[in-house]
Amino acid sequence: MFFLKELVQVVTLHPSYFTPALKDYLHTRLRDTVEGSCSGKLGYIISVLSIDDIGRGKVIEGGAEFRISYKAIVYRPFRGEVVDGVVASVNKVGSFSVQSLIPSDFAFDPNANPPCLTSAEENLTIEKGAHIRLKIVGTRVDATEIFAIGTIKEDYLGVV
Questions:
Q1: CA nearest 42: which of 138, 135, 143, 139?
Q2: 30, 60, 75: which is the final residue of a domain?
Q3: Which of 106, 100, 129 is nearest to 118 (CA)?
Q4: Do 9 and 28 share a structural domain?
Q5: How many independent structural domains does the chain possess?
Q6: What are the tens digits of pLDDT across the range 117-135?
């Protein structure tokens, strides 16, 4: 699920950036630092929407620290959420999932190139790069990553 969050980040700059374009450097450094990063508590920071406040710099050894308040779009997966994704790899136990979460008519074909899951009844194939729709059945949060387990064993889920 996507959220709009108000966040704070401390950005450190080297004195060589203390020019009339200081604010531009701070904006760039903030975006480079936080966009695409993951905090287990918040989720993945997708994009910085606005910078609300840049605090006064605090001189430290070798540069200065600036406290920046900003708004960002954050994504965090939740149990029961239906999402679209791309298969990263396929192996005997599934496509980064437990076999019990894949419909019983799908079978692993190790002789296919590339190896894939195939359904004889519906002539469907799940292989690396395939677009699928799945329902998240569980998540695990680490300090810098979020892992999710999903199923395609329900109506309207599977290959898109």
A1: 143
A2: 75
A3: 106
A4: yes
A5: 2
A6: 777 776 777 777 888 889 9
pLDDT digits (tens, 9 = 90+) for 42-86: 899 999 999 999 999 999 999 999 999 999 999 998 999 998 887
What predicted TM-score, i.e. pTM, was given to this entire model?
A: 0.73
For residue 60, CA distances in Å to 23, 66, 68, 121 come to 18, 10, 16, 67
Helix (H/G/I), strand (E/B), else coil: 17? helix
| CA-closest candidate to residue 96, choices 60, 55, 127 | 127
Identify whether residues 59 and 6 lie together within a single domain: yes
Host domain of residue 97: 82-159
Query: pLDDT at position 149, please?
Result: 85
Residue pointed to by tokens 């790069």? 129
Q: For residue 35, which of 63, 64, 75, 66 has the smallest C-alpha distance?
A: 75
Six token digits for residue 104: 């019983």
